[in-house]
């Protein structure tokens, strides 16, 4: 398999290895079926209004992890499909589905070649999902292929500001620029591979694949926010700069 696909194997191994610990650590924040919430600080969907009315919509969670988003969406009347690279993550999703009393398809696949027909979904979305771990020059065209005309593509991802402020020595962000903004695309350590682009490159990629940008949302946690992800971006940092951003896109062709 070519080098362009090596990251898929590497990320699959990492998530299969770490998913038990991840789900255990973040269960208090993730395993809530009473609301939809975005990102590491759990900013409510009711405040951001990214997805809109989901009742009856065919939805693909593009990297579903333990399926928590899709479980809540199913309870709201949507028709979700949960897709993830990691079979271990999908094992957690299956258990959580049974616990929540809902059922929907779970598919083990990567976002660069999803096993669905063209125009299968009304909404494709993820919250720190496949768009973080898949090459955007493969995953964005794939999302466009899967969406019906006028379909919604929404995804939350680390912000470029967070990316360039990451300090490898302390393994968290600080108030200095450490990495180059121009030319960013791929960041790899011994365990996994993440992807990021400058904002202009994202926009050009979206337009090349028939997307119109409806919004770029930069969730800001409230001053009293709590999270199970404090190492991603501490509250004081996240109150000053966006650690995450949500792209909200519409398929126009």
Task: Describe what you observe in this structure.
- This protein is of the alpha/beta class.
- It has one domain: 3-Layer(aba) Sandwich (Rossmann fold).
- The chain is built from nine helices and 13 strands.
- It has a seven-stranded mixed sheet with strand order 5-4-3-6-7-13-12, with helices on both faces.
- Helix 1 packs parallel to helix 4.
- The chain is globular.
- The two termini are 32 Å apart.
- The model has no long low-confidence stretch (mean pLDDT 96).
Would you kindly provide a brief summary of this structure?
The protein is an alpha/beta fold. The chain contains nine helices and 13 strands.
Keywords:
253 residues; Rossmann fold; alpha/beta; two-stranded antiparallel ribbon
| Number of separate helices | 9
Shape: globular
User: At the fourth CATH level, what is the homologous superfamily?
Assistant: Vaccinia Virus protein VP39
The proportion of residues in beta strands is 15-25%
Number of β-strand runs: 13
Rg (C-alpha, Å)? 17 Å
Note poorly predicted spans: none
CATH class placement: Alpha Beta
Q: Tell me the count of domains.
A: 1
CATH architecture: 3-Layer(aba) Sandwich
End-to-end separation: 32 Å
Q: Give the spatial strand order of the biggest sheet.
A: 5-4-3-6-7-13-12
**What's the CATH topology name?**
Rossmann fold
Q: Roughly what percent helix?
A: 25-40%
Along the chain, the helix and strand elements come as: HEEHEHEHEEHHEHEEEEHEHE
Please state the structural category: alpha/beta
Q: Sheet with the most strands?
A: 7 strands, mixed
Average pLDDT metric: 96
């Amino acid at each position: 398999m070519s080098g362009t696909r090596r990251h898929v194997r590497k990320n699959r191994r990492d998530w299969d290895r770490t998913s038990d610990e991840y789900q255990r650590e973040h269960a208090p924040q993730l395993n809530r079926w009473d609301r939809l919430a975005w990102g590491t600080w759990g900013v409510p969907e009711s405040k951001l209004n990214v997805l809109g009315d989901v009742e009856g919509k065919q939805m693909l969670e593009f990297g579903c992890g333990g399926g928590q988003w899709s479980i809540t969406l199913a309870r709201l009347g949507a028709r979700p499909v949960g897709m993830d690279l990691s079979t271990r993550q999908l094992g957690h999703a299956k258990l959580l589905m049974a616990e929540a009393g809902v059922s929907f398809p779970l598919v083990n696949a990567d976002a660069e070649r999803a096993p669905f027909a063209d125009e299968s979904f009304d909404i494709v979305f993820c919250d720190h999902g496949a768009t973080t771990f898949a090459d955007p020059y493969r995953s964005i065209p794939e999302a466009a292929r899967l969406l019906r005309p006028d379909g919604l593509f929404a995804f939350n991802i680390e912000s470029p500001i967070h990316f360039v402020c990451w300090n490898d020595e302390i393994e968290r962000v600080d108030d200095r620029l450490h990495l180059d903004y121009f030319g960013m695309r791929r960041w790899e350590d011994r365990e996994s591979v993440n992807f990021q682009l400058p904002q202009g490159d994202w926009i050009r990629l979206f337009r090349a694949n028939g997307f119109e940008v409806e919004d770029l949302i930069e969730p800001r946690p409230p001053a009293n926010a709590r999270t199970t992800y404090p190492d991603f971006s501490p509250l004081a940092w996240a109150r000053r700069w966006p650690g995450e951003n949500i792209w909200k896109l519409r398929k126009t062709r």
